[in-house]
């Protein structure tokens, strides 16, 4: 995998694009299952094709997805995840006051997603302990040490990050939140 610089998600339009539940579900599906069309996303997410097409175009405009021209024919357009993998969020003081609600909504939706994954962890662990793993720890750190720990954690995630089409045949998609959970059981 190529080295990638972190990307600060401080563009209000891009932040608002990712603070929408359906767009988050669409990106999640593309991450887990790979390329899809607006029709397949509509079927999977129980949404109308016109709705998914609209949201796909917005995600493309923001650089989060890209069309796969060699797979697209006529009106059928295939999409894949694109853009940065290591996205960092700004602190509220780096946004204009009118853009801060989008940051709050981004966090709210993300926490709802994480809570749902966390609640699924015990059952996933019973089914498949080789793939459902958890780690808890405790430490005293300075601010500088916490920053070093965070950057090392992100570097480790980036080292093992792959797109679906780059993954070996025995690889599985995993949600990683300092615990892992198979993503292909949804």
UniProtKB/TrEMBL annotation:
Pfam families: HTH_20. Residues 13-100 form the HTH arsR-type domain. Keywords: DNA-binding. The keyword Kinase does not apply. GO terms for molecular function: DNA binding. This is DNA-binding transcriptional ArsR family regulator. It comes from Streptosporangium lutulentum.
